[in-house]
User: What shape does this take?
Amino acid sequence: MIVDTPHEPRLARVAAVVADPTRSRMLAYLLSGEYASASELAKAASVTPATASGHLGRLMDARFVVCEPRGRHRYYRLADAEVAHALEALALVAERDVHERAWADPQRTRLRDARCCYGHLAGRLGVSVFDALQREERLRSTLAGFELTVSGREWLGQLGMNPSPPNGKRRFAYRCLDWSERRDHLAGQLAGQLADELYQHFTAMGWLRRTTGRAVEVTASGQRNLLPRLDAQPT
Assistant: This one.
């Protein structure tokens, strides 16, 4: 007998959306936080544009994805950070028994070293940045997560960043479990600014460069000049 449990989480509905291989590939492609066209998502999922259109409709109905028209074109992105965090959490569960073997694959090495995760830095680089911010009282714990201290603002200033104050539209800074490292990296408004401003600054300095998909590569110059500032060792 099936017991009606109206107050339990609606996991079946979410699972049905993610379970389809085509939709899961589209969602994984969008985890970088960037917009993508229907044709780009069709190519990423290895399906025809017509098939992609049907799946995108399903993802929008489920509020996993939103669409933004720009002129004659339509672009898609994940609906919000909660969707991104849920997808990475599912990936953690799916790979918990094969984690080290899965991430030993050479094709995943760059993705593990550094990547974008819905507008913030993830992978070893993202974890190293968060670790560095937690040292020397650069972050202070709050009920909502973290706030920057004077020491933290000074340290980020030395890296070329002038952090904006909390804008009230999203949580300022909080923990996010990293898919590849199974340790926390930083999420929230501050993490978004880190990913934007510091990525541009580090790229201009020749310390980082974007490769394919979500992967971000720490260059040889970055290993010499950036990683020591994070108290991290080159991989």
The chain has two domains: 11-79, 99-230. The chain is about 45% helix and 20% strand. The chain has a mean pLDDT of 85.
